[in-house]
Amino acid sequence: MDFNTIICTDDEDTNNQIDELLKATADISSANAGTFNVYANTMKKVKLPLLATTATGAVDTTKRKYW
To answer: Could you tell me how far CA 18 lies from the centroid of its own chain?
Structure first.
């Protein structure tokens, strides 16, 4: 299997953290300049807005940070 997809809810904080992981680059003036991001362009993110719901369709806040 080729594990290349991250599935997450539509929670903005979670989406921002995933984007930080996938799109991270080192500042060119930092000590880590030129560091290669091994996750760049290797995975795609899919948001499922109904992932954080119950079987009846009600909002389930315990699942909002799932990915």
So the answer is: 3
DSSP 17-65: HHHHHHH----TTSTTTT---TTTTT-EEEE-TTTTB-TTS-B-GGGTT
Q: How far is CA 65 from the centre of its chain?
A: 10
Model-level pTM? Answer: 0.72
Report domain extents, the chain.
Answer: 5-63
The residue with tokens 């997450």 is 8
Give per-residue pLDDT as tens, 24-66: 777 667 777 777 777 778 889 999 999 999 999 999 999 999 8
Tokens for 11, please give them. 């929670």
